[in-house]
Amino acid sequence: MADDFIKFLGTAGARFVMAKQLRYSAGTLVALHGQRLMLDPGPGTLLRCAKSRPPIDPSKLDAILLTHAHIDHSGDVNALLDAMTSGGFKPHGRLFAPRECLEGPDAVVLRYVRDHVEQVVALEPETDYELGPLRFSTSVRHRHPVETYGVKFRRDDRTIAFLVDTEYFEGLAEAYEDADVLIINVVRRTPHESGKVMHLTLDDARAIIARVRPRKAVLTHYGMTMLKARPRDVAARLSEELGVEVIAASDGMSLPLAED
User: Fold this and answer.
1) Which domain holds residue 64?
2) Per-residue pLDDT tens for 14-70?
3) Which residues 6+ apart lie within 8 Å of 243 measured at CB?
4) CA within 20 to 30 Å of 242's CA: 108, 143, 201, 208, which one?
5) How far is CA 123 from CA 67, 70, 75, 110, 242, in A?
6) How many structural domains are present in the chain?
7) Is the pTM of this model over 0.90?
8) Which residues, in sequence order, are bridge partners of residue 220?
9) How far is Cα 73 from Cα 70, in angstroms, rounded to an integer?
10) Which of 7, 87, 17, 3 is nearest to 40 (CA)?
11) CATH of the domain at 242
């Protein structure tokens, strides 16, 4: 469809950029095949929907998808579910989320809002899902402190992939080698001195893009060290170095998919 697009309501990654709101921590709107899905509605998503130009009406969403339970990815999930269903007066839509988001002591989705949606789907690794005509699949399980999956959306014969929070591991790039558009969460410019932070670095992103060679790569979900490195400058250097179009996402940026 000509009006397919991705809109980055926020590009904050990790705790300090989120806490200071140096970049918004809102989610990402995916509009494909007539379906509207909100991916990872972090804190402030409901507000950024209202402030978006044009405004985004949450009641028109068809689904909400969580890749994992961390606050910067799920902080507004209950508010969005409530708004999507008009406070439960117009039940509809679906919620897709890893099982850890739904069960156990750290479940992030309130039970009463689950009754407002048509279906709650617990995500599994490397599994196909449907939302009307929209088809997508999960990636291999990522290496992150909680249950985490990337997502691959299908558009005709193209794949739009979100490689979300994870540390680098053997086989990660190969898991996304079918991506035509590759959106990567790049939290850190360099590894954390502790060696225990399970997020991708700029060198990790460079290696992944070089291996996958998508038609287009998009950097997002910046931590403090990436902001200091100036994401636009980083993307320009990667484009020149790798011969791949690399874009640095910004808050409110829309990425049309008609040509991809």
Assistant:
1) 5-256
2) 889 999 999 999 999 999 999 999 999 999 999 999 999 999 999 999 999 999 999
3) none
4) 143
5) 9, 16, 19, 17, 34
6) 1
7) yes
8) 185
9) 6
10) 7
11) 3.60.15.10
